[in-house]
Amino acid sequence: MKNLSLILNAILLVAVAVLFYLHFSGKKQSGSESSITAPADLKFAYIKSDSILKHYDYFKDQKTILEAKGKKLEQDLQTRGQSLQNEINSYQKNLGNLTIGQAKALEEDLGKKQQNFRLYQQSLEQEVANDQAKLTEALYTRITSFLKKYAEGSGLQIVLKYDQTSDVLYGVPGIDISKDVVTGLNEEYKTEKQKPLKADSAKTNKK
User: In CATH, what number is assigned to the domain containing residue 98?
Assistant: First the structure.
């Protein structure tokens, strides 16, 4: 069940699709010329995904929750596995005292239990995978939603993801907005966490 441990640092968090069609001149389509050029005043920036993962409070909270859940599921699986192993050991130890019919019946029973154990293990692994996928989707939605508002306020037209998996090999520090994005995301998350507390407080005051 080592696969139940969450390895979330490899998750592709911020995938912002960027397509450039630059300077198609001299090409004729249906007898007419067509050219597309990039704006001269194009503004872009980048964020480092590892910085987001390291400093985004929402991600850290969700990671802690999922890791705790993963450990609990792993412990449960180990307990079930040990119980099944004990039954197998007992069967093997007492095999000489069993009739052929008794031995066959126990073997069939243990076989079904082993099959059920494998199915249970697969269900837990799928549950963890689903949780990871949901977190990835939530992160993507939260980050891209914030970037849209951030870009509108700062005049940015493109935001790139900068890490070892991206096509961006270098970026000057001046266009790295990771710190601003993390700060903004954490402020939104802090406000979000405070909303239920205010609602509970209002209910208490009414009473």
Answer: 3.30.910.20
Q: Which domain range does residue 159 map to? A: 2-206
Please state the pTM of the whole predicted model.
Answer: 0.70
> How far is residue 5's CA from residue 131's CA, in Å, rounded to a whole number?
12
Main-chain dihedrals φ then ψ at residue 2, nearest 5 degrees: -65, -25
32-33 vs 28-29, strand pairing mode: antiparallel
For residues 91 and 112, what is the distance between their CA atoms, to the nearest angstrom? Answer: 14
173 vs 121: CA distance, rounded Å: 47
178 and 52 Cβ atoms separated by less than 8 Å? yes
In sequence order, the β-bridge partners of residue 158 are 44
What percent of the chain is helix, strand and coil (3-state, nearest 5)? 65, 5, 30
- Residue 18 φ/ψ region, left for φ over 0, alpha for ψ in the -120 to 50 degree band, beta for the rest: beta
Do residues 45 and 83 lie in contact, with contact meaning Cβ atoms separated by under 8 Å? Answer: no
Task: Please list, in sequence order, all residues whose beta carbon lies within 8 angstroms of the beta carbon of residue 70, skipping any fewer than 6 positions away.
Answer: 4, 5, 6, 128
Blockwise average pLDDT, block size 10, the chain, 207 residues: 38 33 36 49 89 94 95 96 96 91 94 96 96 95 94 90 86 92 96 72 53
How many domains does the structure of the chain reveal?
Answer: 1
pLDDT digits (tens, 9 = 90+) for 52-103: 999 999 999 999 999 999 999 999 999 999 999 999 999 999 998 989 999 9
